[in-house]
Give the backbone structure.
Amino acid sequence: MKDKNEVYVKWGLTAVAVILVALVISLVFNKLGYIAVTIKAIVSTVSSVLYGVVMAFLTAPVYDKISDRLAKIFSSLFPKWKKPIKLAKFIATLACLVILIFVIFALIMMIIPELVNSISNVINYAPDGMLKLEDWLKDILNKNPDLEKLVIGNYQDISDRLSDFATTNVLPNVNTYIKNLSSGVLNALGVIVNIIIGMMVMMYLLNMKTTLASQAKKIVYAIAGVKIGNEIVTEARYIKDMFEKFIVGKIIDSIIIGIINYIFMAVIHMPYALLISVVVGVTNVIPFFGPFIGAIPSIVLLLLISPLTALQFAVWILVLQQVDGNIIGPKILGQTTGLPSFWVLFSILLFGGLFGIVGMIIAVPTWAIIYRTISRVSEYFLRKKGLEPDSKHYMDLDYIDEETKKYIKME
């Protein structure tokens, strides 16, 4: 009777736990809008700190190498000197700051003049470009009068609608657009201020990262104990290495792709080579979809100059994406994440839908961590139940014998 009562009590506690979890989930979903607004406000408030954290994360490998090398040099040259490490850290911090400023300045000097030139060219040559595009379509569809009539008719209809949209919607709302432009300028100034403050935060974090890491470990061991603490520290180190290797490797890969694209466009004298190469290089940081995201506006820009040039560039991007995906990317990144191709695509779609461009960038390493955690937890519970953790034992499995724990394969 006692055993029966214990079973009822367990079932009752389980039911109460399920109800409580359901209520909590329901409450979270009901208040999701308020939670999102609160998170957005917090992120906006500490955005300059987040800028600094990202900068420190990206420059940490450079900082470590410079400071370690200089510390060894100073120690060998001045063996009796007591502060070689401090000077090495100071010089490494200064070097990271100079490198960061140089990169930002170089990007601005490359992009802004090219962008202004591109906009002025588009404004000047857009009417001629549209006429050239129409003539090009007529030449291609020359041999098929029915198809030509359909395509050109739709093309002219779209042109008429765009003209009508410009006169009825764009011109009457010029004041609104000017206000939005002013707001955009203020937001850009806010970003500049955040970047400047972020650089200051970066300098502090680079010099404090060892201290902060030791304090975090102390708190973990104080709360979780030795066994669980060791697991947490190991996982944290894995997460840090995963993001560092993937993101830094992806940035190097994107720089190489941008340079290759610029060389190709310069050799065959394509217009806007520098601007398009920067766009292609920056968007290449996004796995899988990056080259195509960068290619679409570039193709549209080239289409106004010459449809044939746009077609050549589209074919080149497909070739470049294959070269990057099969040769350059694997050489630089290796098997950093260990994720199958399906999970790479799934993670990018999931995190891109949830968090936009930033989500697409961090999707692969984040999902790799989730994938590894689920695998480790599954293996732990399988071993605890006396079952095999290796996936090969479950290939073509029909069932597991309850008494002998023998794996019965399907016939």
Summary: The first strand starts at residue 397 and ends at 400. The CA atoms of residues 398 and 410 lie 5 Å apart.
